[in-house]
Amino acid sequence: MIWIIIIIVIAVVIVLINSSSTKDKKYETTLSSPVTKRSDSNEKEMNSLLDKMVSIGLDSLTSLEMTHDEKIDIVENVVNSINENSTSIEQEQKLLLKMATKAYDKILNELKYDENTLETIRNEREDFIAGIADGTVESYPWDELIAWSDGYREYLQNQLDAVEKEIKRRKGTVISSGFANYYINDDNTLKFEVSGLTHLTETELAKVKTLKKNDSKVVLEPEPNNEYDSNAILVKTEDGSKIGYVNKDALPFVHSVIDRITKCQISKLSDHEIPYVWVFIVYDGECLEANND
Question: Does the reported pTM lie above 0.85?
Answer without folding.
Answer: no
